[in-house]
Specification:
The protein has ten helices and five strands; from the N terminus they run αααααββαααααβββ. By secondary structure, the chain is mainly alpha-helical. The chain folds into three domains: 42 residues; 61 residues, Muramoyl-pentapeptide Carboxypeptidase, domain 1 (Orthogonal Bundle), CATH 1.10.101; 123 residues, Arc Repressor Mutant, subunit A, CATH 1.10.10. Strands 3-5-4 form a three-stranded antiparallel beta sheet, covered by helices on one side. It has a two-stranded antiparallel sheet with strand order 1-2. α6 packs across α7. The N and C termini lie far apart (101 Å). 34% of the residues are buried.
Amino acid sequence: MKRSIRVLALSLTLAAAVAGGTIAAHRYERAEQAAYSMAEEAAVLKQGSTGSDVRTVQTKLKRWGYYDGAVDGIYGSKTKKAVMYFQKKNGLTADGIVGKNTFAALGMMSQANGSSSQTGSSSGTNGYTSSDVYLLARCIYGEARGECYEGQVAVGAVVLNRVKSPSFPNTISGVIYQKGAFTAVDDGQINLTPNQTAINAAKDAMNGWDPTYGCLYYYNPVTATSQWIFSRETVTTIGKHVFAI
């Protein structure tokens, strides 16, 4: 009898321990899910969001001609509309929410990873960041992946020459996403994944190789439709592209 009582007591103790452990596990799981939801929320900007990241988005979109409202750090309906316009032009889901892909398209890749830094970690490429390298490589790949290696570097050099020129935006993302500047942005090819050749070409351009000798423009004379571009002074031709100032 005493033995039966001891076994029963032990069973009840074990059951209580298991139940307690299960409750603790559920509590941990709920806390983990809540933390994940908070991190996920922090990684996006949407209507109702406020702060410096919203201000950065507004500044970029205003500079590129997508937004004409106040740069006030408040994600209102006008900001949402501008984001949707930008997303449509760049082949992204036009939901008006700045998530991972839209952050990357805006040149703000580090925010998509939950960081407050705009530029990301240093790439060691002449002071440019890893985000800069990747975005320039995407532009090169979208614009010139069928060109010889020198021609790909040349496209990257034109982007960097524009960054240095007072006539253009002063960031790589600003130059690339300037309204109507690059066909790859207009048709969505900017969002293709660049290959290693394009990445290497971006790095070479950033390290100072400029096969164009300072050119700010390039075009394919076979497919170009703007008469204005033909009026620019030609400096050199590499592959199918004419480079001009």
